[in-house]
Amino acid sequence: MSDWTEISGGITAPRGYKAWGMAAGLKPSGAPDLALILSDVDAIAAGVFTTSQVRAACVDYCRQQLQAKASAKAILCNAGQANAATGEQGNIDAIETAQALAEALNIAPESVLLASTGVIGQRIKMDALKAAIPQLVASASESGGEQAARAIITTDLVPKSIALETLFGDRPVRIGGISKGSGMIHPNMATMLAFVTCDAVVSPPLWQEMLSRAADRSFNQITVDGDTSTNDTLIALANGQSRTPAITGKGPEADRLEAMLTAVCEHLAKAIARDGEGATCLIEVQVSGAADEADARQVAKTIVGSSLVKSAIFGRDPNWGRIAAAAGRAGVKFKQEDLRIQLGDFLLMEKGQPLPFDRAAASQYLKQAAAGEYLKSDTVLIQVNLGNGSGVGKAWGCDLSYDYVKINAEYTT
Amino acid sequence: MSDWTEISGGITAPRGYKAWGMAAGLKPSGAPDLALILSDVDAIAAGVFTTSQVRAACVDYCRQQLQAKASAKAILCNAGQANAATGEQGNIDAIETAQALAEALNIAPESVLLASTGVIGQRIKMDALKAAIPQLVASASESGGEQAARAIITTDLVPKSIALETLFGDRPVRIGGISKGSGMIHPNMATMLAFVTCDAVVSPPLWQEMLSRAADRSFNQITVDGDTSTNDTLIALANGQSRTPAITGKGPEADRLEAMLTAVCEHLAKAIARDGEGATCLIEVQVSGAADEADARQVAKTIVGSSLVKSAIFGRDPNWGRIAAAAGRAGVKFKQEDLRIQLGDFLLMEKGQPLPFDRAAASQYLKQAAAGEYLKSDTVLIQVNLGNGSGVGKAWGCDLSYDYVKINAEYTT
Hints:
CATH architecture of the largest domain in chain A: 4-Layer Sandwich
Radius of gyration of chain A: 22 Å
Number of strands of chain A: 15
Mean pLDDT of chain A: 92
Oligomer: homodimer
Shape of chain A: globular
CATH class of the largest domain in chain A: Alpha Beta
Strand content of chain A: 25-35%
Structural class of chain A: alpha+beta
């Protein structure tokens, strides 16, 4: 199917990138909290940001920078303070942060992009951040991808990283990515961040188009308990260091690059959904037969975001009624007499009618998923067909478990 | 403010109505499960139904009846089986149910409306239902409103009933209502049902318009954990037995009737939100300064539906950041520098900036709400201003508690 292979190295797998992560004293815990991603040369930069009306200073800063100039050499990400709802001082802090890094790297401040995650309403600890920059810059290396992956996480249980490689002719083209976010409620932070590096040669508008489409099919198809963050950020760099032919418009190379970019984003998005607090499995919903892709994605996302479906799956209950009800309220037109629902290999509903099925075996299927290997065999698959349309779409989430709710229900300041 | 007073009697408070509720053996528990509402004369009938593409047979049945003729004499509601996803047999059962009741009442089947709540995919136990109809009809009385209120509930903790009275000249006009739904996750049922009786003299199109607007400001502004049911039904009858002047168009009497209808719907909707599993308080969000009412309602509903906000309130945590973040992602445009957030008497944010406030006292405000009296003083009030617009709107929900999640997380078939 896919014409790429998974390789190690994460965001430093593509040519011409360095990265690092360290503890700068921003998090009270003393865990790593400052990450740097560096391209040897100016890289094409594309971004997708939160659509919230309440935004962090770094989001506005990046949007402005990328509007002026679709390229960058460095991304600095801090964890601990979100720098959201911090007013004019927040903007000043963002500008000062970019200037401090630019000076240490001897590049223009316009070549620096920023991201923050942490507590809303708190300014970045600027003194600690500035004091750490020289060491961070000095440590940046071509094998530092995993350090960066670890330094951007907050309440995540695991760092999230991937790299894929394909061949354009006989030359390798690589895409790496890291992400953070645990996809569920957190006391004060639920930010989703992802950074992607690529060494392909691609034109700026095409790279932005590819990234926007890839985000729609990946990060925008996971449910982060419905709460979009003030800081959500996805930035993708393409620095051309693969020295492959330039991709400037439609064609087989553009299709292959976008497919690999989408695969990287899908992996990082699924890793976020899987890392939901207390989650015991990943849920993938595949919808087909919709009028178009947008309709299919909408139905898939509604099903995977339904608290009723999520709690049924944790209860190992093959409850087709909840799946049907969620599909029905997705805001997408279909005929209920066309509805088909399958859970794993178990056909639960066809032509809108419940079918007899082996309930114990279907429950066992859900139990096995919970015991599976992380992101390999721990996936519950729900397939829904709405009719004769050509629209297909996928969405991912996790189950709603006792641990999840216990953690959050017992939280009190 | 309001020119009405609360009276007893629920749906049998208006003139010319009888009602009853009984255990017909539909629920395995043996609890009351069959309710009848009866108007002495043909009543104007208006309805608002689920927008889900997966609908119960009774919903399709009522829609067809009301399209053909906007009047009815009887409403029969069963609890225990939803008669949704039951295919053509479900439609046959619905028609047979209406015929059986019509025969017992000696009226036309077209004068009967139906509602069901219970397990999706299960047919109504037709033999038990039909066997119970003679006793149900014989028992219907002008003081049976509370029996009906009890027979339509499923996992609700309390029956929900209200009646209001106002004077048109020297003659009383009354509206009564009952509702069911516990506003949160339930293993197999989350239906919202509400039935309203009124003795005013009003024209059919105006009554439907009033009901649709009242529903938008009440039932459509409570969060039922996002899951719209296959069976959601609101039916309102107006039988003209108050013998007051006919209301056929705009005017002060129409405004007064609609305001009282809205108040009845708001009470019933709040009662559903308050009855969420494990809820310790009602949350009311008031939004002002929006461009229009729809925007204000959208922001209010997004805030009150946020799992982050709901769990913060259960944790007695005056977490303005979560409220601001929810407002920001509501899909409504506003300037974050205009945002103002107040919790009870505590001003938490103004002009988009967090303000210093007495955190312990604000937390105490949340604690007191949880100890308050049901639907009287157990309300947490969140007021949000978005700017200079004239749009105002309200929404209601409940907190997300440990008990709530415990019940649902531990559910396994």
